[in-house]
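Budget justification, computational time. The allocation requested in the original proposal was used primarily to generate structure tokens for proteins on the priority list. As evidence of use, we reproduce two of the resulting records. The first is shown immediately below.
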Amino acid sequence: MQRAIMKGTGELPGVHYEEITYEGYGPSGVAMIVTVLTDNRNRTVAEIRKIFSKNGGNLGESGCVAWMFQKKGLIVVDKDKIDEDELLGIALDAGAEDVRPGDAIYEVITSVEDFEPVKQGVAAKGIELSSSEISLLPQTTVRLEGNQARQLLKLMDELEEHDDVQNVYANFDIPDEVMAEV
């Protein structure tokens, strides 16, 4: 038992973790990318495949959906923290590519290279950031409602609950009123 604990904490030599990216399709053809960090590639792929299958999706080949996503910087600011025009001016001056308004938030989109300067430029103006990260953003989205939305969210939840899963990216669009119902 002590050996298993030492292996799990990385104290024993020979334990090698690798980062793997899986691609697939969820219900209604939603493109999904799942990044994992695992010490057992075979176990993890079997478990991820099972989660996809039981939730109406399927695991695909490498490269099957990656072309639908772009690696970008994503900075999220609550709408009640700043006016849209003011944020737009600050973000664009700092080098942002776009500012997208949502229902309760603004999304500031940057290139990977400009992420830190834009993040620091926005924060330097005293604007509180809800979150900031390098992310995979979909180029197009699939609109879902009703049972399709529920099924996809169940798949996303199960993937995110898996111990090895680090991030799940998908190209779905669920209206806020439908999201509130689910």
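The second record produced under the same allocation is shown here.
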Amino acid sequence: MQQRNKGLTLIELILCVAIVSVLCAISLPAIGGLLADSQARASNNLLVTALNLARISAANRQDEVVLCPSSDQRHCTGGVWWQNGWIVFQDLDHDGARSDSEPILAAAQAQAGMAIESTSGRQHIVYRPDGSATGTNVTITLCDRRGAAKASAIVINNGGRPRQGKPTATEAANACAGLPKG
């Protein structure tokens, strides 16, 4: 009676490794796209949540509430780039800038791999006690490494209500130009 060896031959092992390698090579780009899409959606949702919080807080507190870009999550940085984070604060002195005595209602950290740009000249969004926003409509465009074709936008009308939108080709290109190099 002959005894059978249990185990794998070297050829069988190499064949299994080759098949697994091919399957991984095929699936990795799809997984990368899913991760990028998930990250972009999370940044978008975080910003919409901050906008809604600012609007509701202005109405509840019967005072102006400001949302602005902030790299230190304590003071407004100015400019139109939001990817380094933002803050929502009650603007007690109505100057559009946060003083140390004004309460921070929410803060968001930097959004890695994203470029977020607001309409030119709009360095902050001010909500009035009735929930409306000051100034003209503002568009905040979000872009990730997938490029302008996958960019998204949040549009805030004078009534203060944010909605999802599609950025113009110029808005998408400008926002994507703010992506970190490398």
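A brief technical remark on that second record: The helical segments are 10-61, 169-176.
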